[in-house]
Design a protein that fits this description.
The chain is 33% helix and 20% strand. By secondary structure, it is α+β, with helices and mostly antiparallel strands. The chain has a domain of 147 residues: Peroxisomal Thiolase, Chain A, domain 1 (3-Layer(aba) Sandwich), CATH 3.40.47. Strands 1, 2, 3, 4, 5, 8, 9, 10, 11 and 12 form a ten-stranded mixed sheet that branches. It has a two-stranded antiparallel sheet with strand order 6-7. A hairpin with a 5-residue loop joins strand 6 and strand 7. The radius of gyration is 19 Å and the shape is globular. The two termini are 24 Å apart. The relative contact order is 0.22.
Length: 383
């Protein structure tokens, strides 16, 4: 059986808001995601009959409360799709949105479905990291407590093990903000963002995180958050955020039938495991696995959207893999732009694709570390 080519014909996201104090704090995640899905479909100008969609798959890292009860199915109907369109929620923590896209692409490639909407959503305002009722297994607490330690402590472990200095972490964070501010001012994100109408009726369409006023001195004055003698601060970590993203995928054959232009080909996806206490190094195993699987060389990749959960872990990945820092997060990363957990993977696909189109690049890697000790990486090719 020959594999079909899975293509992305649309990729959109909401702007990312600060949790609790930001513009989306009072807006339900299912409302945000429904608007983004409608925006991704509207981008196709009526070329996609809603009934042609086979499935909607949404990633969510904390699928409970306002984003529970199979939010994928709920959002599909809330977005106005026919009842015949099924829906599902997937959870691979920070890689949930990328996992959703990969899962749909792979089903298209084997001919199981023709058209899907895939993405992710997270309201860290309404559902805290860890959920509303974390219940640790006592046996695991005794035997493998590292499975439950805070992500911040895993970043401290990475900083210590890989000798990532506080100064280097702060410099990395500053660069993230500077690049994000420059990209925002240039309007680079405008085409990928769907304006979301918030609960109070206002329109939200600009990322809230990038700070043009931050300095090395300001970052250096912040105290460690997770360990009294540590180096990980609020300034060199990703913040907590709210947002959603969605992509429309289909077989290349179906896109041709519908008269839709494929924007990118989904090339491959890989995951790998590492020790939970240094979960931030996950991309160190996922990216080489992806490259081996696809036969693409790192030198051929034009942009790498590496999620900046923490500067410590991002720097460890960059140094261990020998990544070209000019290709890594050229428009800033999560330290500046935010990390709404289950949304992030799909958000980065939208950003990477827009960047390839703007610069004429060919390949993009989207990669991130994952709580519990994992990494994920996906590869897309501009068409």
């Amino acid at each position: 059986m020959s594999l079909q080519t899975a293509v992305i014909v649309s990729a959109r996201r909401s702007a990312v808001a600060r949790a609790h104090k930001g513009s989306l704090a009072n807006t339900r995640p299912d409302d945000i995601a429904a608007q983004v899905i409608r925006g991704a479909i509207a981008e196709l100008g009526g070329g996609l009959p809603p009934g042609a969609i086979d499935d909607v798959v949404l990633g969510c890292a904390m699928p409970e409360a306002e984003q529970g009860l199979n939010v994928g199915r709920i959002v599909a109907l809330h977005a106005g799709l026919p009842e015949t369109v099924s829906g599902m929620t997937v959870n691979r923590f920070c890689a949930s949105g990328l996992q959703a896209i990969a899962q749909c692409a792979e089903r298209i490639m084997v001919g199981a479905i023709d058209v899907a909407v895939a993405g992710g959503v997270e309201s860290m305002t309404m559902v805290p990291m860890g959920g509303n009722k974390a219940m640790f297994n006592p046996a695991i607490v005794r035997t493998r407590p590292e499975l439950y330690i805070s992500m911040g402590l895993t970043a401290e472990n990475v900083a210590h093990r890989f000798e990532i200095s506080r100064a280097d972490q702060d410099a990395f964070a500053l660069r993230s903000h500077q690049r994000a501010v420059a990209a925002q001012r240039a309007g680079n994100f405008d085409a990928e963002i769907v304006a979301v109408t918030t609960a109070d009726g206002t329109s939200f369409a600009a990322d809230e995180g990038p700070r043009g006023d931050t300095t090395l001195e300001a970052l250096g004055a912040l105290k460690p958050v997770f360990h009294i003698k540590g180096s990980v601060t609020a300034g060199n970590s990703s913040p907590i955020n709210d947002g959603a993203a969605a992509a429309v995928l289909m077989s290349e054959r179906r896109a041709k039938e519908l008269g839709l232009r494929p924007r990118a080909r989904f090339v491959g996806f890989a995951t790998g495991g590492v020790a939970p206490e240094v979960m931030g190094i996950g991309p160190i195993v996922a990216i080489p696995k992806l490259l081996a699987q696809t036969g693409i060389k790192l030198a051929d990749v034009d942009v790498i959207e590496l999620n900046e959960a923490f500067a410590a872990q991002a720097l460890a990945v960059v140094r261990k893999l020998g990544l070209d820092e000019t290709k890594v997060n050229p428009q800033g990363g999560a330290i500046a732009l935010g990390h709404p957990l289950g949304c992030t993977g799909a958000k980065l696909v939208a950003t990477a694709l827009a960047h390839l189109e703007r610069t004429g690049g060919r390949y993009a890697i989207i990669s991130m570390c994952i709580g519990g000790g994992m990494g994920a990486a996906g590869l897309i090719e501009r068409m």
